[in-house]
Amino acid sequence: MILILILWSIINDTYRTDLMFIYPPHVIAVAAMFLSRVIDQGHQSDTEAQQWYADLNVEITDVLQVVNDMLALYEYWNDYAEPKMPDAVSKYIADIAASV
């Protein structure tokens, strides 16, 4: 049950990216399944799962690129600090005002 919740969260998070314009839905789905399994079970070696992924008709490089993009998104979200934003916006507005 937890695996499915993680999977749905990852799928929903992909809608906050441009991945849907770059990759077909089945590639995003496979990447989300892979990432959710790693999050849920860690790096356990499972030959049955490895064979299942190998039998899929997807480019593994595309799947790994989607996984990397999602990990980059999560890393960005982790580093995002709301209090910094008003200062950044104020500085930007001041720079624009100074150039006019």
Provide a quick synopsis of the model.
One of its GO terms (biological process) is regulation of transcription by RNA polymerase II. By secondary structure, the chain is mostly helical. The chain contains 6 helices and no strands.
Label this structure with key terms:
0% strand; mainly alpha; 100 residues; elongated; Cyclin A, domain 1; 6 helices
**Annotation, overall tally of beta strands:** 0
Could you say how many structural domains there are in total? 1
Largest sheet: number of strands, sense, barrel closure: none
CATH architecture tag: Orthogonal Bundle
Query: Gyration radius, to the nearest Å?
Result: 19 Å
Characterise this structure:
The protein is mainly alpha-helical and 100 residues long. The protein has a single domain, classed as Cyclin-like (Cyclin A, domain 1). 79% of the residues lie in helices and 0% in strands. It contains six helices and no strands. The N and C termini lie far apart (57 Å).
Q: Topology of this structure?
A:
Layout: H1 2-14, H2 19-22, H3 25-41, H4 47-55, H5 60-79, H6 84-99
Helix pairs in contact: 1-3, 3-5
Keywords: Signal
Protein name: RNA polymerase II holoenzyme cyclin-like subunit
InterPro entries: Cyclin-like_sf, Cyclin/Ssn8
